[in-house]
Each structure stands twice: as C-alpha cells, then as structure tokens.
Amino acid sequence: MKLIENLKWRYATKNFDSSRKISNNDLEQIKEAVRLSASAYGLQPYKVLIIEDQSLRNKLKPVSWNQRQITDASHLVVFCNYTSVKTKHIDEFIELTAQIQNRSQNELTGYRDFLKVKMEEKSDVEQLYWTAKQAYLAMGTLLAACAELKIDACPMEGFEAEKYNEILGLTEQGLHASVIAALGYRSKDDANQHQPKIRKSVDNLFEYLGDFELVEVMAGEPERG
Fold it and tell me: What is the sign, positive or negative, of the torsion defined by CA atoms of 11, 12, 17, 18?
C-alpha cells in the first residue's frame, strides 16, 4: 500500500517554508478528499474554512499560542462543527439525497423522521460533541490526502476556540471551531522531519477477538448424540 509509505513519511510539521504555496490543483484534490470523507448518516454537520489571507492569519496567531505554523504555512484549515443539528440541516440533507439518487422526497420521509428522532435523543452538549467528532473524521481524511500529495500538515488543538469563533464570525452561524490544520511544505530547518516516528507496536495496539474463543469453549463441551 502506498498509503502506508505516505503515512510513514508524514509528521506534524512545526516549521513550514513560507515561500512555498500549495497549487490550486492540489488544493482542489484535498477538498474533494475531505468532501468524500466518512460521516455518520452522511450528514456532514460541519463547514471547512480554508484561510490563505495573511492579515486574517495574523489575527489568529495570538489566539493560537503564537505558533508559527498559523502564519508560515501555505494555508490554514479550520474545521467548524455545527453546535446542533437543526431540522433544516436534516431537510437539506434529505433534499440533496433525493436529488442525487433521483428519488422523491416522499420516499425518504421515514429516513427523515428517523434522523430527527436520533438527533432529538441527544442533549445539547451531546450534539455539540457528536458534530465535533464528525469534523475530526474529516480531519483524518485531510491528513491522509495531504500525505499522498506529499503536502505537509500539522493538525492542531492548541488554539482558543471561542476567540476563533469571534474573529471568524462563527457563533452567529451556529458554528464552533473544533480543530485546525496548517498545510504547506516543511522547511529544511525543521529538525522533526529527521526523527523516527513514535508509534505503538501492532501487538501492543491491537487485540484480536476471533472465532477461536468460541471454538475453545465448544471444544470443552461433551459430545451430544
């Protein structure tokens, strides 16, 4: 798998070459990968902001622990989850589903009702965290796509979300900055690129639960006529 080699290549880049910019073609491929990312029910309850404007990034840097990636990277990506899933979000999703699948919305009434019930079962806090989890799924896809294109990325939680909400006008849109990523190209001076990747071993990380347990249990039972 090329994916494995690409993931071995990537790391959380801290020092970007500010003179290098991501091409429009590569940026479109990244956007398409994120668009196709897995999402519960397919709802995609988030928006993704791609910020290139330097003056805006200068405003965001102080509320991002003054990390240089914010301004030195080619682009800053902000994943913004909706603070709650409204009826209009579900209705828009059903309308889109009917359009893409060439079906009438009446055929999807049961699914619309199902989604509304599932969302109503969640408290306001649960909805906030649930939509944020969906944004993180999209972030994972973005990181893999960047690795394939040999574009460096640094996923970041080190920022003041409420300040981002204020600066970017997110609150009035029912959005919340959940996680961000700086994208671009590593500087030759970034020492981290030469460090071996630290990850748990496969044996330590995974535990396999297979049919052998059932076989062992059945093996100890007496034969039946």
Answer: positive
Residue 78 has what pLDDT? 99
Residue boundaries of the structural domains of the chain: 2-193
Torsion sign, CA atoms 14, 19, 25, 27: positive
How confident is the model at residue 210, as a pLDDT? Answer: 86
CA torsion 31-132-51-10 (nearest 10°) is: -60
Q: At what angle do helices 24-35 and 124-148 cross, to 10 degrees?
A: 140
Amino acid 1: pLDDT:
83
With a cut of 50, which residues of the chain have pLDDT below it? 222-225
The CATH number of 2-193, from 3.30.450.20, 3.40.109.10, 3.40.50.1220, 3.40.50.720, is 3.40.109.10
The count of residues in the chain is 225
